[in-house]
Design a protein that fits this description.
This protein has 351 residues and is mainly α. The protein contains 14 helices and no strands.
Length: 351
């Protein structure tokens, strides 16, 4: 009877934990980002807590407010502007379906060598009118739907970012207690090696954070140099936007490609070519070299494990996989090393 009671309690606990995970499922991504942000900026939290004579809640509130101002507010502004441009593009597609293309822009004809031909192609498409638009109508509708879907994703990303910064406050305030709870739980599960694996995971996440932020800072500085050389107005603002967009895959081209197009539209073709080459090989190219180096620096993991974790995680899980991939491979690699050493010791003890 006692065994049956224990089995019933265990089943109820499993059901309870499963229901809890199900309830929290919509918030896992925001909680993960909040935890990563709090972990990466924990030295700032400790410093601010000392300045405020140990008032953790006040320090957490001030630091969270700072993240709101520095990160959330600019990205919200950027997101709403991108959403407006998406709506404008969708409206243009719908107008093109009904009225045809507008008159060719003046700058199109001023492009050397191919300008007149491009204007002729533009006019021929417009002259064909309804027949061309009818043949393209299904594809234009798909493009419009795709743009609307991207607009919805932008809104969802802004909401998730705001929610993750709200979670940051609680991770700041209750971080030491959460860390002690995780350490106790892992000790119950795997024994004395719990501390080692906590340090392994923490070190891996810290190196990934350093790699992501360090690479974003390098790309922002290089982009700023390119914008200043090319004479693009608002170079400092564009450099800050580059830093923020460098945190997502293929983010920097969203800044330097429009700047290159603006230079071409103004007739500065030499500077446009320079900025295009600079953006392709310097700004975007540094991501493939600097990020793996910074992530693998200071750790005992082979570089190939880090690279597989970074790129494999991105493919498997999206941007979150940038942190999940290396962490999973680091833990798996360390478990295999521990297992092989344990087996070797067991075999050495055999007579």
């Amino acid at each position: 009877m006692i065994n049956n009671d224990r089995l019933l309690v265990q089943i109820l606990l499993v059901v309870l934990f499963g229901a809890s995970f199900w309830v929290m499922a919509p918030f896992w991504s925001a909680m993960f980002w909040g935890a990563v942000l709090a972990f990466a900026s924990w030295p700032l939290m400790r410093l601010l807590t000392r300045w405020l004579n140990g008032r953790e809640s006040l320090a957490a509130a001030l630091l969270t407010l700072g993240w709101m101002v520095l990160v959330a507010a600019p990205l919200v502004w950027l997101g709403f502007n991108l959403a407006d441009h998406v709506r404008d593009a969708t409206a243009f597609i719908k107008d093109a379906q009904v009225e045809g293309l507008p008159e060719a822009p003046a700058w199109l004809g001023s492009i050397p060598l191919v300008g007149e031909r491009l204007v002729g192609i533009w006019n021929s498409i417009d002259e064909q009118g309804a027949a061309m638009m009818m043949s393209l109508k299904p594809y234009l509708g798909q493009v419009g739907n795709w743009l609307l879907a991207r607009s919805a994703q932008i809104g969802g990303g802004i909401l998730e970012l705001t929610l993750s910064i709200v979670f940051v406050f609680f991770f700041y305030r209750d971080g030491p207690r959460l860390a002690a709870f995780v350490h106790t739980l892992l000790e119950r599960l795997i024994g004395q090696r719990a501390g080692y694996y906590i340090e392994l995971v923490a070190g891996t996440v810290q190196r990934v954070v350093n790699g992501v932020i360090g690479t974003a800072a390098a790309q922002a500085i290089l982009a700023l140099i390119g914008f200043l050389i090319a004479g693009v107005p608002g170079a400092l603002v564009l450099g800050i936007v580059t830093f923020m967009l460098s945190l997502i895959p293929m983010g920097p081209p969203l800044v330097w490609i429009p700047a290159t197009a603006w230079l071409a539209w103004k007739g500065e073709y030499g500077l446009a070519i320079f900025l295009g080459i600079w953006g392709t090989f310097i700004v975007s190219g540094v991501d493939n070299v600097l990020k793996p180096y910074l992530i693998s620096r200071g750790g005992n993991l082979p570089l190939v494990i880090v690279l597989l974790g970074v790129f494999g995680g991105l493919i498997a899980f999206g941007f979150i996989g940038l942190f999940i991939g290396p962490t999973l491979l680091a833990v798996a690699y360390s478990l295999l090393i521990d297992w092989s050493k344990t087996q070797a010791r067991v075999e050495d003890r055999r007579p």
